[in-house]
């Protein structure tokens, strides 16, 4: 387990089982986000000419941590200061009342 500030993560090396290869010896850009038990929660693979956003990756990590801690649902474009939805129809009404004023 490694950490960057308050964010902890597993690092998988190119020699690990998660190797991304396209043809002989060509590594693609791959990202795996795992929970503390090593369960993959998110993965993306980009072609060589497409870069990745570190900010988006950090937002995803924070969203997975929020869901694990609070048991709520993080919508698209969620940020740590955004409201989240409780995962059942009755309890979710609180969110919709808050955002539809």
From TrEMBL:
Q: What Enzyme Commission number(s) apply to this enzyme?
A: 1.11.1.24
Q: Which Gene3D superfamilies match?
A: Glutaredoxin
Q: Which GO terms describe its cellular component?
A: cytosol; mitochondrion
Q: Name one GO molecular function term.
A: thioredoxin peroxidase activity
Say which enzyme class the record assigns.
oxidoreductase
Q: Which reaction does it catalyse?
A: a hydroperoxide + [thioredoxin]-dithiol = an alcohol + [thioredoxin]-disulfide + H2O
Q: List the Pfam families.
A: 1-cysPrx_C (PF10417)
Q: Which UniProt keywords apply?
A: Antioxidant, Oxidoreductase, Peroxidase
- Tell me, what is an example of a GO biological process annotation in this record? hydrogen peroxide catabolic process
Domain (Peroxiredoxin C-terminal) ranges: 63-98
Q: Which family does it belong to?
A: Belongs to the peroxiredoxin family. AhpC/Prx1 subfamily.
- Return the protein name: thioredoxin-dependent peroxiredoxin
Organism the protein comes from: Piliocolobus tephrosceles (Ugandan red Colobus)
